[in-house]
Amino acid sequence: MSSQGWRVNMAEGSVSIAEVETSFQKFAVHGDTKATGKEMNGKNFAKLCKDCNIIDGKNVTTTDVDIVFTKVKAKSARVVTFEQFNQALTELAPKRFKGKSKEEALQQLYGLIVGREPANVGVTRVAKAAAVDRLTDTSKYTGAHKERFDDSGKGKGKAGREDIPDTSGYVGAYKGSGTYDEKVKEK
Question: Disordered: where is this region (predicted)?
Fold first, then answer.
């Protein structure tokens, strides 16, 4: 099955299979530094289905996507090729677009995929809750904690501590501290 030149006619225009393959490659390499873009793992297939709105929660669920992926891949393989990916889409299309012919449904599915790439929106967000703001507001600190910050809220570091430990190595209140080197030289 050659992917060059094959075009799918759609209501919005025509989409070449090469454009679908471009999106396939973008999702195939997502999150994997060793990926070549020729094969896609199950996690990235599920991501493609989610990001391109193939999974709608009613007709097509994540479970459906996982089942279809397992069905089209080779028995011992953990990835699918572009041809197997197309097979998977052919199976998902009638479920996603009920009441349409297989060809029409597949064309609409391709329309969802073309031009898309993996979304990184909301992957890691910094928690900004009222509780965090309240706990980190240095103007509300009291007692010993208050002394460790200046008026602007910047920490004073070690200078803000009341009791800075003596790390000289001598016992507290020892009268002869600092005399060790002199005693060693005498001998």
Answer: 143-187
